[in-house]
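Render this sequence as a predicted structure.
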Amino acid sequence: MMSKQLLICVESPKSTPIDYRYIRKLLQNRYEFDPYDSIKPIFLGGKYKYNSNKVCKEIKEHTDNFFGETIVVFCFDSDDFTTHHDDNLFFKQLTAYCENKKYKLVWFVENIEVVIWGYRVSDKQKKHKADEFIVKNIEVVGNLTIASPKATKTSNLYTIFDEIINKRQLD
């Protein structure tokens, strides 16, 4: 069986890996990974840096240094794409970029905390709430199985990873 490398690209900087910590925990709770699989975060340092030279170089380096299949997954908060023109334009640009590169794209409508907790979490509380989610194994409020998430508290996280990981799901 060929091993897989999953490069999970998140908006945040490396100094605040909150979104990646949530995503990693959600994946660990749902899937059984092969010991030879590799899951690595790529921290963008801001959502508009998805196609920066630094990010492209990091993806290329990880891909070149791995023997097996590499799958790149961008994970983004949709913010207010249904009501703000700039967010909607960004949504379209990022979607086109990922399709062109054959990358996967995961959306959290409005953001990952809204999907997980059901409400916006203040910046001051984000680390604490992520720690609580990871330690206490809190049940997610939103729906992570929507193919084209547009409603608040929805995401396509499990839909995308169900396609990628043809391993036994943990229930």
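Summary. The mean pLDDT is 90. The longest strand covers residues 69-77.
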